[in-house]
Amino acid sequence: MIETLPAILIGAVLVAVFSIIIGLLLMGFDRIVAARMQARIGPPLTQPFIDIRKLLAKENVVPENAIPWLFNLAPVIALASAITILFYLPIAGFAPVLSGGGDLILVMYLLTLPALALVAGGFASGSPYATVGAQREMVTMIAYEFPLAIVVVAIAWRLAAEGISLPFSLATIGANPVWGLVGPLGAIGLLILLVVLLIVTPAELSRVPFDTPEAETELAGGILVEYSGKNLALFSLTQGVKTVAMASLVVALFFPYRLAAIAGISGFLGAVIDLLFYILLITLVTFISVSVIRVAMARFRINQVVSVYWIYLAIAGLGGLLLVMVDQIMGVV
Amino acid sequence: MKIPSSFNRSLWVFHLNTGSCNGCEIEIVATITPRYDPERFGIRLVGSPRHADVLLVTGPVTRKMAPRARRVYEQMADPKVVMCIGTCGQSGGVFFDSYNLEGPVDQVLPVDVYVPGCPPRPEAIIFGVVKALEKLERLEAQQ
Ligand code: SF4
Question: How far is the CA of A40 from the centre of ligand 1 (A)?
């Protein structure tokens, strides 16, 4: 665990730079993969970097009937809070930068912060499109929060049933991969929970089919409609960092494995292998829950988003939770 | 204003119909299909003029659309380029003597690149984008 203040600061800067770079690369990867699936060549991997550089050079328009301070503050808060999430998540087996201070519950709350900043920015821009988008974003947030909570609680419950203390702590979850604890029935339950979490991810990231708040064709960009230049660049960075954060959460909950530890390699080489393995895992998660779903589906209406999460995914999640519980009880008996 | 070199590898396009017959729209949609795949060069259609670098205008400008076209142009963030797609936008085309025309596009907006044709082929539209890029590079060299 990192204790001293300078170490925390250095760690924070490293995590911020790392997450921004990996986030943009993941977005570029997603665009290439989506293009290949549509039989196109697609943009270069560095396209998001080029886009950001262009946006930073462009004029930053603040609309006449916007609330300027909130309008300009929202993107900064969104990016800062997205990076903060990663301070609490283990990256590549390294202890989280702020590992002492928070657990999964805190991460769940932090995950809503970028979305809330987006909503505030949408309302502050004073455009009817952005207002509708912001309202939709709030509805989407309420919708996906429930299945996400089920997944988190199920895993923590399973660890607690094993008699492990601090089941919500990410260090505990990392030390006790949940797949090792369950029998075949519980494995099926966990698989269901994993699928639920993978479907929650695109909504968390406002990607198709849950990009209803940003619906480009109906809402002209929704929440982001009035944003340009520097502020839009900050929101794109947030998007990238959030992708890393969500993928890291999936990896931390379900695949807290370290290749180097399994292979018995330690030291610097082990750290590098761990990092590469971790990047591979989050790329895989992004590929499944962002690229494949996004190419395969069209956008849901906002009422469909709610019923998908509250009815279908909630039932699936509860079913998974039930299987995990039955498995545990049978194991004890 | 300084134009960065990343500008011409990341052109975001907003399409505005100021009174076109929809023929030009169909060709623009054909241009963004996988066959031509302009995303290779970072070209993307965006939904809001605030995000756009290029304004694609199709059709002659009707009286109702003229103030709106000016507003959309003003909403775009600098630096920006206007492309006029189709014969109508250059001369009025088949609608040249219509009673409700404000005039060709260049009577309303400062046009940078004209793409003639009724409607122009996707290849012509892509050529127009290349011309726009060349113009940007020229402006860059002048700075
Ligand atoms: S140029 Fe031809 S296709 Fe295009 S809007 Fe005019 S009439 Fe229609």
Answer: 28
List of chain A residues whose C-beta atoms are within 8 Å of the C-beta of residue B25: none
Asked if the structure places residue B11 within a domain, the reply is yes
Which of B91, B73, B81, B86 lies closest to B25 in space, CA to CA? B86
Query: Which residues of chain B are within 8 Å of residue A32 when distances are taken between CB atoms?
Result: none
The partner residues of B103 in beta bridges, in order of sequence, read B61
What is the number of domains present in chain B? 1
Q: Is B8 a residue whose pLDDT tops 80?
A: no
The model's pTM is 0.83
Give kind and range of the element (H or E) at residue B114. Answer: strand B113-115
B21 within ligand 1 shell (Cβ under 6 A): yes
Instruction: Say if B143 falls within a structural domain.
Output: no
Q: Is the pLDDT of residue A325 over 60?
A: yes
A92 pLDDT band (50/70/90 cuts)?
low
Which CATH number goes with the domain that contains B97? 3.40.50.12280
Q: How many CB pairs under 8 A join A and B?
A: 81
Find out whether A200 and A151 touch, Cβ atoms under 8 Å. Answer: yes
What residue of B is the nearest CA neighbor of A223?
A: B48
**Tally of domains within chain A:** 1
Whether residues B47 and A54 touch (CB distance < 8 A) is answered with no
Picking from B1, B10, B50, the nearest residue to A227 by CB comes out as B50
Q: What angle do CA A121, A126, A132 make, to 5 degrees?
A: 75
3-state helix, strand, coil in chain B (%, to 5): 45, 20, 35
Residue A271, pLDDT > 70, answer yes
Instruction: For ligand 1, atom 2, name the residue with the nearest CA.
Output: B118
